[in-house]
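It would be a great kindness if you could assist me with a short task in structural biology. A protein sequence and the structure tokens that stand for its backbone fold form the material at issue. I should value your view on which stretches of the chain appear to form regular backbone elements. The record follows directly beneath this note.
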Amino acid sequence: MMTNIPDHVLDLFRLTDKVALVTGSASGLGAAIATALAQAGAAVACHGNRRAARDTAQTIVSAGGRASAFHADLSADTGAEELFNQVHDVFGRIDILINNAGTIHRAAAVDATLEDWQTVLQVNLTSVFQLSQLAARGMIARSASGKIINIASLLSFQGGIRVPSYAASKGGVAQLTKALANEWASQGIQVNAIAPGYFRTENTSALQADETRNRQILERIPANRWGDPQDIAGAALFLSSRASDYVTGTVLTVDGGWMAR
């Protein structure tokens, strides 16, 4: 029985000398992803949409990793470019981009305002394109390979209830992932997405607190539990590493089996 993983296998997952930007990494899934990439050796730019992700960066630094905290408002047209320039000034480049930042607005479709619709689309979809474009331009100019991982959703496949802007944005993320993968694979840039299931985060706090919805959700998940943020770390590390060099244009579900039922 094999008891040790050979070094050449582990090397596929090491991110030594890589620079990663993880948007929306002040807490939740983003913080878990940023920490995992740092543990694999990457220097991590930790972004917060409302505030700089200082706690996440400090956790990484305290554990012996390299990280810096950044703040930019991705609901603004100029937010993505401002963030990219900040990170570039500190680290000089981006090798791995994790487009994790997101927002949600819950309302009946007949009551949703255009302003709310546009805010959700800007944060969840338009800024994803803007940052991907900026990162890819740098990778191509350096003739360097790179990884772009977008955070999609189960609502990339399903319609949801009372979240029309969120469903539209996450459906767009899945299609954008495929479109960019088609264009940039020949340049050595892999573009993939992760579609998390029901995770314990701020975005799902209302569902967790609703006894009926919480029960209905758990009844459909074969794993019979909500996901914890660290459950997504392995998928993010795989898609960020050389182990996934022949994987592109895919949307990987991390959902406890939700989509299989």
Observations:
- The CA atoms of residues 125 and 169 lie 5 Å apart.
- The radius of gyration is 18 Å.
- The first helix runs from residue 7 to 10.
- The chain has one domain: 7-252.
